[in-house]
Amino acid sequence: MNMKRFILISSLLLLCAAMHAQQLTGTYLVAERDTCNLYIDYYAPNPQAAVLPDGNLKPTVLFVFGGGFVSGRRNDPYHLPWFKKLTDDGYGVVSVDYRLGLKGIPMRFDLFHLIQSAKYTKRAVDMGVEDVFAAIRFIADNSDEMGVDPNNLVISGSSAGAMISLSCALEVCSPTERTAILPEGFNFKGVMSFAGAVMSDSGLPSYKTEPAPHLLFHGTVDEAVAYNKIAFGRWGMYGSSSLVKEVFSKKGYVYNFFRYENHTHDVAGSMEATWPEQKRFLEENVIGGKRRIIDATLDDPSMPVWNNITLNDIYK
Fold first, then answer.
1. Which label site among 87, 139, 224, 248 has the fewest CB atoms less than 10 Å from its CB?
2. Is 50 exceeded by the pLDDT of residue 231?
3. Predicted structure pTM score
4. Where in the chain are the domains?
């Protein structure tokens, strides 16, 4: 590569980075844990698109990154183009930190270690839920400064972050000791899960009150986060298909489920590719309050494809 071309490409990359950096409105310290400090990043919405015809504001999307509970970060550049789609369309974004509860933990998935690995995973999810709830408490306490309404949040997550997000939504409806930190009467306006599941130590997830509308994306041959379920006694990982079949459809809860035929865990990174479905969900189900239910199986050649990722790949 000649020097002029190198300089041109470098300048373009810096320009793109600068464009993305302009979205960042503020970074806030949320909590100090024994192992790390937890921060959130706030990306303010385009003010011309944020106000609805009735004068109310569009919701803010609370995003929880993925990485198998061993890696990932709230400000990964990979997510910035998707954040920009949201903010351009009038949705603020709060990207949150959480403790990586499986980092350094020996994970094995043979028959003799499955229960122990499930316990480790459940503990990691619970830690993530606690940290996300701390972020919500911070937003509630600093809503005027941030300009974010804590009663108008849509939680969203990818992979491990989707598992945390789904568990946050479950615990809000079936309170635990972790929900005590939340504002009184708190609930999410919506949930968006990219290849997520609920990790349970008490069998099939049960919601004491109706959950917020859920938007679920999952590959039908995902080998990292169960598409259906993996259950053994009271322990289980209940994926998107299991949640819809065994809980949401039976209870009449509102959901949009997009099943991607023959896709693996690549759906966890499909935020940009599935933006049209998110936009319609946000506009009709979340803002419009429609009880619109979708269950679609798609064979979409335009969807990005990754190499297959298994649990052994993540924790080798």
1. 87
2. yes
3. 0.91
4. 22-47+56-314
